[in-house]
Design a protein that fits this description.
The chain is of the alpha+beta class. It has helices at residues 3-53, 82-94; strands spanning 65-67, 114-121, 127-135, 160-168, 184-185, 190-191. It has one domain (3-166). The chain contains two helices and six strands. The strands form two sheets. A four-stranded antiparallel β-sheet has the order 1-2-3-4, covered by helices on one side. A two-stranded antiparallel sheet has the order 5-6.
Length: 195
C-alpha cells in the first residue's frame, strides 16, 4: 500500500465520519421535534377534555389565547373555578410549569408554546377549534392560514408548528342552555325530535 492510497483512504473515511456526524445532528433535531409534538398532543387533549367537561359554559372558552406572550393570566390559579381555572392551568401547562430546572426555569413544554380556543359555529351543534402552536427547530411548511393561533409570532412562519382539534357538541332535543336544537313546532311551541 502506497502513501497515496493511505491518503485517499483517510479522505474517504473523513467524509464518511462527517456524514455520520451530520446524520446524528439531524436525528437529534427530529427527536426534539417529535417530543414537542407529543407534548402538544397531550396539552391539546387536556383543553378538549376541559371544554367537554364544562359544556354548560362552553361559549365562555371562546377567545382564549394563552401561553407565551400572555401576561393577563393570574400568577396563581388558586381560588379560580370553571373556565377561569381551566384557562389559568392550561396557560401554565403551556409554559412548562410542571417541570423546572434547579434554577426554577420552566422546561416542561414546547418552545414558545401558545394555546387558542375559537368558537367556529355558535348555533347548536356548537363547534370549537382548539389549537396548540409552538416554535419548531427547522423550517418546514407553514400551517394553513385558517390556523391563526400564534400567527406572526414566529419568524419565519415556517417554524410555527400547529396541532388542532375540532370539538363539536351534539344535540339531542334541547341544548344544554335550554334552547331548541332542532326546529320548533309552531303549534305546540316545543322542540321537535326530527328536523
Amino acid at each position: 500500500m502506497t502513501m497515496l492510497e493511505v491518503l485517499i483512504t483517510i479522505v474517504i473515511l473523513a467524509f464518511g465520519l462527517l456524514g455520520i456526524a451530520g446524520l446524528q445532528a439531524r436525528m437529534q433535531v427530529a427527536e426534539i421535534e417529535a417530543y414537542q409534538r407529543a407534548q402538544a398532543v397531550v396539552l391539546l387533549q387536556e383543553m378538549v377534555d376541559r371544554i367537554n367537561a364544562n359544556r354548560n359554559d362552553a361559549m365562555s372558552y371562546n377567545g382564549i389565547a394563552v401561553g407565551t406572550g400572555n401576561s393577563s393570566v393570574p400568577a396563581n390559579c388558586a381560588g379560580l373555578t370553571g373556565k377561569n381555572l381551566d384557562e389559568c392551568e392550561w396557560h401554565y401547562a403551556l409554559l412548562g410549569a410542571s417541570e423546572k430546572t434547579s434554577g426554577s426555569q420552566n422546561i416542561g413544554a414546547m418552545i414558545d408554546a401558545r394555546g387558542c380556543v375559537a368558537n367556529t359555529v355558535a348555533t347548536m351543534p356548537r363547534e370549537f377549534l382548539v389549537s396548540v402552536v409552538w416554535q419548531g427547530l427547522a423550517p418546514t411548511a407553514a400551517p394553513p392560514a385558517a390556523i391563526t393561533c400564534g400567527s406572526g409570532s414566529y419568524t419565519p412562519d415556517t417554524t410555527r408548528r400547529a396541532i388542532v382539534a375540532r370539538v363539536q357538541f351534539g344535540c339531542l332535543l334541547t341544548a344544554i342552555d335550554g334552547t331548541c336544537c332542532r326546529t320548533i313546532n309552531t303549534t305546540t311551541n316545543l322542540c321537535e325530535t326530527f328536523p
